[in-house]
Each structure stands twice: as C-alpha cells, then as structure tokens.
Design brief:
Keywords: Coiled coil, Membrane, Transmembrane, Transmembrane helix. The protein is an all-alpha fold. It contains 2 helices and no strands. It has one domain. Helix 1 packs antiparallel against helix 2. It is rod-shaped and about 135 Å long. The relative contact order is 0.05. About 5% of the residues have low confidence.
C-alpha cells in the first residue's frame, strides 16, 4: 500500500508539472503574439505618420507654387492698370494744359479788344480759375497713384 500512496502523490505532482507546462507555453505564445501585434501597430502608426507628412509637404509645395503664380499674375495686372491710369492722367493733363493755354490766349486777345461795356474778361478769368483748379486736382490724383 505504501507504494500506492507514494506513487499517487508523485503522479499528482507529475500531472501538476504537466499541467503547468502547457500553461506556460500558452503564456509565452500569448506574450509573443501581443508583442508582434504591438510591433505591427507601431509600424502602422509610423507608416501613417510618414505618409501624412509626405502628403502635407506635397500639398504645401503645390499651394506655395500656385500662390506664387497668382501673385505674379496679380502684380502684372496691377502694373498694367497703373500704367494705363498714369498714361490717361498724363493725357488729361496735357489736354487741360492746352485748354489753359488757349484760354490764356483768348483772355489776352479779349483784354486787348475789350470794351468798357462788356465783362467778358471776368468770365474768362473765372473759367481759367476753374480749369486751373481741375488741373491741380488731377495732379494731386496722379501723385496719390504714384
């Protein structure tokens, strides 16, 4: 009987050892599986970050290139408009100066031929003053544009 008693606890101890070994193997496999998943997740996150950074850089460079081209087009358009305005003001100033010159000549002629009864010289002086005022306003506008 003793043999059966001593054998029984040994068998129980052996069976316990056998039970722990598969459990340990499962733990090791689970640990390896968890580490593998963590590595895969980390690689996925790193890849997604790299890809999003690359796309962001491409979009930024495209946007910068488009903005630069639009700015250059706007600058050319602005320069063309300013040139047209300046030329227009110069033409208007030249016309106003010619009108002033002709009014001065007419005023001189009228002054020379004036009767005491007519008041044409006052009218001409008034017109001349208005034309000079318009000329000064045009010069101020041209200075503002420059």
């Amino acid at each position: 009987m003793r043999d059966s008693i001593t054998e029984t606890p040994m068998r129980n101890a052996q069976t316990d050892v056998y039970r722990e070994t598969p459990h340990r193997k499962r733990r090791g496999a689970f640990f390896l599986f968890a580490i593998l998943w963590l590595v895969l997740i980390a690689c996925g996150v790193a890849g997604a970050k790299w890809y999003s950074d690359r796309i962001q850089q491409e979009v930024a460079s495209d946007l910068e290139r488009q903005t630069a081209s639009q700015i250059s087009l706007m600058q050319q358009d602005y320069d063309e408009r300013m040139t047209k305005l300046e030329n227009g003001y110069k033409a208007q100033l030249a016309q106003m100066e010619s009108k002033i010159q002709s009014l001065n000549e007419l005023l001189t002629f009228t002054k020379d031929n004036m009767d005491t009864k007519t008041d044409n010289s006052n009218k001409l002086y008034t017109q001349l003053a208005e034309v000079k005022k318009q000329l000064n306003e045009l010069k101020k506008s041209l200075d503002v544009l420059k």
